[in-house]
Amino acid sequence: MGFFLFKRFVSLIGLLIVLSTLVFFFTRSLPGDVAALYIGGNAKPEQIERARKELGMDKPLIVQYKIYMEKLVQGDMGISLRTHRPVSRDLMEKIPMSFELVFWALLIAVSGGIFFGVTAACFHGSWIDETIKWFSSAAVSTPIFFLALLLQLIFFNWLGWFPLQGRMDSFLEFTNPIKNITGISMVDTLISGNFPAFLNVGWHIVLPVVSLLIGPLGIIARMIRSSLLDVMSQDYILAARASGISEGVLFFYYGLRNALSPVLTVIGLLVALVLLATFYVEMIFNWPGVGYYSLAAIMSLDYTALMGVTLMVGAVYMIANTITDVVRRLVDPRIK
User: Fold this and answer.
1) Which of 41, 89, 169, 311 has the fewest beta carbons under 10 Å from its own?
2) 134, 218 contact by CB (below 8 A)
């Protein structure tokens, strides 16, 4: 296990180096004067020239790359052209808000997907199985942005059950402001005893989380069903059944445990899917996370912020897949 983790760590470092190199040279090829964007509107030529020297844009491209990589090793992702603040500080403020959506979406998708997949396998061939298969197929094939807009139309415009967008009601931001402790809204409000804000944030988070979890839930449900049915037809299951082991033990201990191994791989891939989906969801629901930050960076051609977001997403994806592989080794002893 130690050697496996070491190899994954080396792979993570190599991926980040390649990714940072590609993103650096790609963003440098974008049109527009970076120094003028940094200064803003009505910039004078002397101000632009001073900003170009401050940002190091007056140096050759290979020298700029060397300086960028040296700073990146020290945790410095550069200065945002839009906010004029370190990108790492901006991301540290935005990541917890996106993590809040991703955590709840994956938690509900995994638990719900396993439940529906096991239920479909238990009632294989029945109307329950057919209903779950239809639902999972519809969930997988529905675009996330369309689902988000549909949820807004139904639950805000028609029924009025949930708010349209934002993290909390505007008047509560003045009467019950959230004390920033961890950056995760529901955790901070709970720790500080700010229960009106806790309930309001929970009310606002429902539709974004549902938009994110529907697709992964359908994928996991179908994977669990097919994997479990395949495992239950194996020879060792038939031999265990012939030896007198009860169906419940066979299904939930031997069958489900072995069926989870390929599903865990899919869950690792779903982390990347949900991370990318948060960009759509945060834009639609005006959620102040990494996705909304990236949209603002794209609109303002803030290439340093885009580079920071790209590296962050790549690192999170690699870490999530490493954790998934470790859990697979613990669950399935056949993987060594």
Assistant:
1) 41
2) no
Distance separating alpha carbons of residues 191 and 266, to the nearest angstrom: 34
47's enclosing H/E stretch is helix 45-55
Residue 86 pairs with which residues in a beta bridge?
79
Could you tell me the CA-to-CA distances from 256 to 98, 110, 169, 192, 324 in Å, in that order? 31, 14, 43, 41, 17
Surface-to-core class of residue 161, CB atoms within 10 Å of its CB (0-12 exposed, 13-18 middle, 19+ buried): exposed
Could you read off the pLDDT tens digit of each residue along the chain, which spans 336 residues? Answer: 677 677 777 877 888 788 888 888 887 776 666 777 777 667 677 777 777 777 777 778 888 888 888 888 888 888 887 888 888 888 888 888 888 898 899 899 988 988 998 888 888 888 888 898 898 888 888 888 889 999 999 998 898 889 888 888 888 878 888 888 888 888 888 888 888 888 988 899 999 999 999 988 988 888 888 888 887 777 777 787 777 777 777 777 777 777 777 777 777 778 878 888 888 888 889 888 888 888 888 877 788 888 888 888 888 877 777 777 777 777 665 555
Output the CA angle 148-152-156, nearest 5 degrees.
160
In the block, residue with structure tokens 């209903």: 131
236/105 Cα distance (integer angstroms): 36
